[in-house]
Amino acid sequence: MSAWKYFVFAVWALALVGPAAVSAQEARPLDSMAQRMQACAVCHGKEGRASSEGYLPRIAGKPAGYLYNQLVNFREGRRQNAAMNHLMQHMSDDYLREIARYFAELDLPYPAPQRAAVSDDVLVRGEGLVRRGDAKRDVPACVACHGEQMTGMLPAVPGLLGLPRDYLIGQLGAWRTGHRKAMAPDCMAAIAKRLTDEDIAAAASWLAAQPVPGGGKPAPAPTTRGPMECGSAIR
Fold first, then answer.
1. Phi first, then psi: what are they for 41, rounded to 5°?
2. 28-50: per-residue pLDDT in tens?
């Protein structure tokens, strides 16, 4: 079976085992969400932990609010991926929340960071954008929303460490071009449009080269307002 056919089969299987998809007479009930979510491993790796190679993100341990928002965004077409768009289109809000909670509660080790073949100057530039931003271009520091340790914030801001460099570049590029959207006001789209290709590559290179502290646990919800209004950060 080709990789593509196996992927299609896995996506079909995940949709099939949703609670509304089968009856007790048609199939033996599955015992747990862990069994239902096995199809996700085709793309996201065993138990959703992925690896530091490739384009696909880790989903294990991300805030449940963030994961839920992304599943809804795929269902509503704000994020574009043919398989995910198709898979989500008939799933209810309640079931998407159940999926999000399952992956959010997984506590799994992260792979070792990987430094890209870039110069020290590129990494310095990336660290500066992440930690301090660029006030002249109204680019806030990444840590202002994603946490001082870059492991995310509850209830719905994801961590940026432990993600593949190519994935980070792809998502920032998609926001900049309008191919990825979030709930309004879409703060990430506004920020990405202020970044150059070099900015994006530098920030992604530095982030991918950092170890993940504290097991990647997201920080508690902030007590002060962030630098921008973000529709998806509070849901």
1. -65, -20
2. 555 688 888 988 888 888 777 77
- Among all chains, which residue has been given the structure tokens 């979510």? 37
Rg of the Cα atoms in the chain: 18
Distances (CA, A) of 175 to 48, 181, 188: 23, 6, 7
CB atoms within 10 A of CB 155: 17
Evaluate the CA torsion angle 75, 79, 107, 147 in order and state its sign: negative
Nearby residues of 149 by Cβ (< 8 Å), 6 or more positions away: 161, 213, 214, 219
Supply the pTM of this predicted model. Answer: 0.83
User: Which of the 8 DSSP states describes residue 219?
Assistant: B
DSSP designation for 137 = G
- Alpha-carbon distance 44 to 190, whole Å? 28
Cβ neighbours of residue 66 under 8 Å, at least 6 residues apart? 152, 156, 157, 158, 232
Q: How far apart (Å, rounded) are the C-alpha atoms in residues 100 and 95?
A: 9
Partners of 158 in the β-ladder: 152
Q: How far apart are CA 161 and CA 52, in angstroms?
A: 10
Task: Report the candidate in 122, 74, 64, 146 with the shortest Cα–Cα distance to residue 97.
Answer: 64
Positive/negative CA dihedral, 190, 232, 40, 46: positive
| Residue-wise pLDDT tens digits, 107-150 | 999 988 988 999 999 999 999 999 999 999 999 999 999 999 99
